[in-house]
Amino acid sequence: MPCVAGIGLRAPHYSEVLDTLPKLGWVEVHNENFFGGGAPLRTLLKVREHYPVSLHGVGMGLASTTPLDEDHLAALCRLCDDVQPAAVSEHLCWNSAGGLVVNDLLPFPYTFEALAHLARRVEYMQERLGRQLLVENLSSYLTFSHSEMTEGEFLAELVKRTGCGILFDVENLYVNVRNLGVDAGAFINAIPADAVKEYHLAGYSVRDGCLVDTHDHPVYPEVWELYEYVLRHIGPRPTLIEWDTDIPPLSVLMGEAVKAQRRMEAARG
C-alpha cells in the first residue's frame, strides 16, 4: 500500500471515479458489499485496474464467542483472490450471540481469556487468507470493570501472539478520549509502531453530549490535531478518509484526503 492518503469508496461515487479517474492514492471498500459478485464486483475489479484497493470488513465479529462464520470467511477468501487487495482489515469487536447477529460493532472486556480467544481466531483467519490481517481499534461508549489491561496493551499482545497488524483509527481513539477519558498518549505508547499499517480518519456526531462514531462529517480540528501527534510519534502510514452516511460530493472527500496528505508530508520534514 502506498504511504499516501486515500478515500473510502462508496456506491454513489463508483461511476464518477471510473469516468474521471481522479488522482487518488488508494481506495478502501467494505468486503460485504461484494460477496454477491455480479455488477458490484465487476465495478470493483475495474477500480482495481487503476488504484490499490484495501478490503475492510464490518461483519466478521472476531470477538464473538459463537463459531466463526465459515461462509463469510470463504466469501472473503474468494474476494481476496479476485481483487488481490493491498490490505485486509477487520474491526476488533463482537456481533453475535445465541444464534442472533447484531448489525453493530460491540466492545468486549480486555481480559487474558478474550486475548487467547481472539488470538486463535486471528491466527485462523490469517491462515485461511494466506496474508496478514489488520485489526482496528474500536470506538466505545462504555468500559468493563473486569478488564485486565488497556486496549493499547491488548492490541500490543495480540500483535505479539499472532503477527497481525493494526489499523489505527485516530477518530475512534479521540471518541474514546472524550467519552471515556482514555489516555491517548498511553494508547499510542502501548501499541508497537511497526505494527501500525494504516490510519483511519472520519467525522463524528454529538448526541446528548456523547461523541458518536457516525462517519458523517468532515474530520474535526481536534482529530486533525491528534492525527498530527500520532504522525510525530508513530510516523506516516497510508491514511483513509471514511465517510459512510450523508455522503458528500467526491470533491469533498478528495479535499479531506489532501489535508491528510499535507500533514503526512509535513511529518516527513
Short précis:
By secondary structure, the protein is of the alpha/beta class.
Question: Which fold does the CATH topology refer to?
Answer: TIM Barrel
User: Strands across the major sheet, in which order?
Assistant: 1-2-3-4-7-8-9-12
Distance, first to last CA: 21 Å
The global form is globular
Overall structural class, as computed from helix and strand content, comes to alpha/beta
How many runs of DSSP E, i.e. beta strands?
12
Classify the helix fraction into a percent range: 40-55%
Oligomer description: single chain
Word description of this protein:
The protein is of the alpha/beta class. It has a single domain, classed as Alpha-Beta Barrel (TIM Barrel). Helix content is 42%, strand content 19%. The chain is built from 9 helices and 12 strands. The strands form 3 sheets. Strands 1-2-3-4-7-8-9-12 form an 8-stranded parallel beta barrel. The chain has a two-stranded antiparallel sheet with strand order 5-6. A two-stranded antiparallel ribbon has the order 10-11. α1 (14-20) links the parallel β1 (5-8) and β2 (27-30). The longest helix has 19 residues, at 250-268. It starts with a strand and ends with a helix. The mean pLDDT is 93.
